Amino acid sequence: MSDIVQEIRSDLRKLADSETKSSFQRFFKEKVKYHGVKSATVVKIAKQYFSQVKELAKERVFSLCEELFMSGYCEESWIAANWSHWYGDYAEGDLKVYEQWIDKYIDDWAKCDTLCNHTVGAFIEKYPQYVEGLKKWAKSQNRWLKRASAISLIIPARQGEFLPDILEIADILLHDQDDMVQKGYGWMLKEASRLHQKEVFEYVLKHKDNMPRTALRYAIEKMPAELKNEAMKK
């Protein structure tokens, strides 16, 4: 184990508090590993130690990220996800690395979203042609890769980007029975509706008889009441 990872784990153990420990698991349906550190404190630790790694070669930083992911602890995974985003220097081969991380180490929604909202999303904005890779994730058997295919487009969707791809990914995930996937693509549609309300509303109306209600409710959350009521009609 690298010295810096040992130091991070030592700090996380010291800064864990009983209140966070006792309430942590209630945010997850699946059993998760955690130290019990408040998220704001985790970000502070991530920033503190990032100052020590930001000048390292990218391969070394990615190796440290993987070491943190491998532990299975939520807080360590969040630090790894933040580091991979803050480091930047995106290259075309990175998507394969992210895919491997998700496939091997992501096992709850918080790890998935922390990595994909920013790191993968920023990568796709830099290399938009790789949105096709997200469509492959959407067809995976891994629930977290499927969720990641949608979650990675949250910030671009908020900015009005990738609408055709967003609707295509929603098509692929439309009938998925996993609530984590349903919430993921519903959230993606909700963010797209900020600047493309008409198109998203038409999509929801077209599919509302087949779209799981969880996804539908997420998708229409930002819409006016009259549109919500029409979408929710049986």
- N-to-C CA distance: 56 Å
Indicate the CATH architecture of the largest domain. Alpha Horseshoe
What is the helical fraction, as a range of percent? over 70%
Radius of gyration computed on alpha carbons? 19 Å
What is the CATH domain class of the largest domain?
A: Mainly Alpha
Largest β-sheet summary: none
Number of domains: 2
Structural class: mainly alpha
Binned strand content: under 5%
SS element count, helices: 15
Overall mean pLDDT:
97
Keywords:
mainly alpha; single chain; globular; 2 domains; 234 residues; Leucine-rich Repeat Variant
Gist?
With 234 residues, the chain is mainly alpha-helical. Helix content is 71%, strand content 0%.
Fold and architecture overview:
The protein has 234 residues and is mostly helical. The chain folds into two domains: 1-89, no CATH class; 90-234, Alpha Horseshoe (Leucine-rich Repeat Variant), CATH 1.25.10. It contains 15 helices and no strands. The chain has helices at 3-15, 18-24, 39-53, 58-70, 74-87, 94-105, 109-126, 131-138, 143-151, 154-158, 163-173, 179-193, 197-207, 213-219, 225-232. Helix 3 packs across helix 5 (74-87), helix 6 (94-105) runs antiparallel to helix 7 (109-126) and helix 8 packs parallel to helix 11.
Secondary structure topology:
Elements: H1 3-15, H2 18-24, H3 39-53, H4 58-70, H5 74-87, H6 94-105, H7 109-126, H8 131-138, H9 143-151, H10 154-158, H11 163-173, H12 179-193, H13 197-207, H14 213-219, H15 225-232
